[in-house]
Amino acid sequence: MSTLADVSPSLAAALGVEGFTDTLGIGGGVGGGIRGVALLLVDGMGADLVAEHADHAPALAELAARGRTLDAGFPSTTAVSVTSLGTGLPAGGHGIVGYSMAVPPLDHPDAPADVVLNTLRWCAHGSTDPVDLRRELPPEQVQPVPTVLQRAARAGVTVTTVAPEIQRRSGLTRAALRGCRFRGVTALGDLGAAVVEALGEATADEPAFCYAYHGDLDMIGHAHGPGSLPWRLQLGVVDRLVAQVAEDLPPDTVLAVVADHGMVATDAGWRIDLDTTPALLRGVRRLAGEARVRHVFAADGALEDVVAAWRGELGDAARVRTRDEAIADGWFGAEVTDAARGRIGDVVAAAEGNWTLVRSRIEPMETALVGHHGSFTDAEQHVPLLLAHG
């Protein structure tokens, strides 16, 4: 199945940017050649959830009827997926391998010796007083691959990112989406308007590529659960946004709506608390990831015991693989760079069903969430690719 890593390259190819292939068939809009594309990422809008609640999202359902489903890629979490959209590569290629990940020392004078980096906030993970690490861990070094947006801009495309103002100079924006002008927005109204305006600037000689992000559906899914009444009402709001933008598309432009992941609901009965399970901490020097997928780093000489303990304790609650096994099984993509390999845990545990591998002491906020994502279930992996042509 195609993945999120195929989306931006296909959009760039549809604009005629050399070096990219339209593997998803984006081209072919009404009126001939495409002069503008908009990629709208709706955080947390899993394809299975949209299908289940189509009555709350008639416009999305109509587009889905002629759209297709993609795999998010692994881990199915925002920072990884946004970077895959930005670079056209899976996690093993771009090196952002989790919501939090261990970053070995960089060739940078201020780089810390070894840190678990929260890739959304670009700070030390689990810190009660987060410290900005953009200077010590420059995003352009942590993720050095040129983005699709950079390559499109160099080819003469006018490239715009439309997102909340707080993301303007964030670590993740610099790592995953660098290479374009940034338009900060505050709500759905100016987000939709900014997308339409960016596409309206497109010409045959100077095509336009607009990336836009909306995160409220994901936040509500985490807090109240995917499919809950608040979630369904927010889905309806997103539906109206997409319908309005699709209606206002300039001629010869394309709107592509995707999600970064889906979501599963869980509760205390499905939690395994790593912080209160000594057998799962014995021989472990560091933990990264999130509740649905954990990177486990073993102390020297303890790997075999750690693997045995995690497989024995978790049983059917998670797939447990060594780093080499996970890479060989293609979890992080066909190719894994040396940098990415060093950030993947010695052991990787991907939760099955509705299980979560929480850390009540280190991650109290995340532990309390209802909705989670990151692993391999269809509910987490299946994301929509919805296309509307102007």
UniProtKB/TrEMBL annotation:
InterPro entries the record matches: Alkaline_phosphatase_core_sf (IPR017850), Phosphodiest/P_Trfase (IPR002591)
Annotated TM spans: none
Signal peptide as annotated in the record: none
Superkingdom, natural source: Bacteria
One protein family per Pfam: Phosphodiest
Protein name, per record: Alkaline phosphatase family protein
Annotated organism of origin: Actinomycetospora chlora
